[in-house]
């Protein structure tokens, strides 16, 4: 890999401070090839910092304290010089494929060796894709046959946008049937207030208005069963 003509400016988006610290140390150790110019802990901070600092590469975690960052990828890549490189523990193909379709240029898993992280940053900076063969094949197939895929599962994008916590909540709602919010919150070891916030997000993503509609939707699309099987 040739040395970049200028320092690659990197933004890290992750809600785990230990991970941010480790990545910052790794990237800054590669100066003058690259450096960390800013960090963010949630979607709102990420969008604001990207607009202010205009990073070349955004290392983006998909699950930010229960909030999916899938929705902000188009905003992050609105600047044609910024490229998004996922750095995530999520391994579900549907989620990763959706992230790529929304503009991510590559996928790094959190157990990726340090030297591979630096190489991925450089290659993504130069316009290459950092995707394995299976992911690239699925994404290209989806682009070539969008009508067939939508007929197969028109709700797939909605389901893929759900975070791990939101999927767990849907599973509990299905299993609990008409249980009160307090009972569901106790099973999840969270407060009722936190549960209501998560449910509001789920309602918005799935296009339902309340727990009854969520239950009917989840049963119809077998979400509770699918999520339990995926554990």
Estimate what percentage of residues fall within beta strands.
5-15%
Let me know the number of strands.
7
Query: How would a crystallographer describe the biggest sheet?
Result: 5 strands, parallel
3D shape: elongated
Derived from helix and strand composition plus strand pairing, the structural class reads alpha/beta
Can you give the mean pLDDT? Answer: 85
Quaternary organisation of the protein chains: single chain
The residue fraction in helices comes out at 40-55%
Low-confidence stretches: 146-152
State Rg: 19 Å
What is the tally of helical segments?
13
Series of H and E elements: EHEHEEEHEHEHHHHHHHHH
Task: Kindly describe this structure.
The protein is of the alpha/beta class. The protein contains 13 helices and seven strands. The protein has helices at residues 17-28, 43-53, 73-76, 93-101, 114-125, 133-144, 146-152, 156-160, 164-176, 181-188, 192-206, 211-220, 223-230; strands spanning 8-13, 34-40, 57-60, 63-64, 67-68, 83-88, 104-109. The chain has a five-stranded parallel sheet, with helices on both faces. A two-stranded antiparallel sheet has the order 4-5. Helix 10 packs across helix 11. The N and C termini lie far apart (39 Å). The model is unreliable at 146-152 (pLDDT under 50).
């Amino acid at each position: 890999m040739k040395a970049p003509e200028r320092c690659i400016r990197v933004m890290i988006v992750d809600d785990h401070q230990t991970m941010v610290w480790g990545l910052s140390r790794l990237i800054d150790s590669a100066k003058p090839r690259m450096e960390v110019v800013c960090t963010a802990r949630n979607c709102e901070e990420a969008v604001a910092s990207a607009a202010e600092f205009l990073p070349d590469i955004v290392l983006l975690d998909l699950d930010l304290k229960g909030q999916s960052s899938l929705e902000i990828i188009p905003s992050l890549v609105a600047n044609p010089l910024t490229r998004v490189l996922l750095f995530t523990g999520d391994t579900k193909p549907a989620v990763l494929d959706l992230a790529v379709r929304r503009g991510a240029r590559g996928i790094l898993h959190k157990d990726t060796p340090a030297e591979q992280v630096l190489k991925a940053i450089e290659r993504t900076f130069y316009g290459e894709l950092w995707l394995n063969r299976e992911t690239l094949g699925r994404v290209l197939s989806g682009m070539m046959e969008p009508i067939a895929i939508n007929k197969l599962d028109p709700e797939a994008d909605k389901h893929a946008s759900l975070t791990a916590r939101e999927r767990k909540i849907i599973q509990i709602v299905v299993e609990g049937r008409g249980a009160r919010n307090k009972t569901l919150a106790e099973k999840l070891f969270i407060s009722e207030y936190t549960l209501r916030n998560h449910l509001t997000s789920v309602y918005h993503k799935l296009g339902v208005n309340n727990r009854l509609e969520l239950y009917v939707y989840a049963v119809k699309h077998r979400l509770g069963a699918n999520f339990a099987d995926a554990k």
